[in-house]
Amino acid sequence: MCRDLARIASDYIDGELGTGKVMSVKMHLLMCGRCRSFIGSLRASIELMNAHSSQQLDEDLVRRIDERVSESLNARRSGNDTSDP
Known about the structure:
Protein name: Putative zinc-finger domain-containing protein
Helix content: over 70%
Oligomer: single chain
Structural class: mainly alpha
Number of helices: 4
Order of helices and strands: HHHH
Strand content: under 5%
Domain Putative zinc-finger: 2-36
Number of strands: 0
Mean pLDDT: 84
Low-confidence stretches: none
Number of domains: 1
Organism: Marinobacter algicola DG893
InterPro entries: Anti_sigma_zinc_sf, Znf_put
Largest sheet: none
């Protein structure tokens, strides 16, 4: 069950699991200190990330980065990579 919990932990925290799954997770958490600790750490990490990600993304910058990454990948695939190592 610990591996299963690790796979669905984010969904559990986000409230995206059905009632049966939630009950199963809660029962497991009652018995497993490691998983309780894992869920607590994941919650704290999510809260920390949310607290520091309040800035809006510059959509134009993201688009330009995506274009450059695509260009670089395409150049590597075609054997025309001219970027510095």
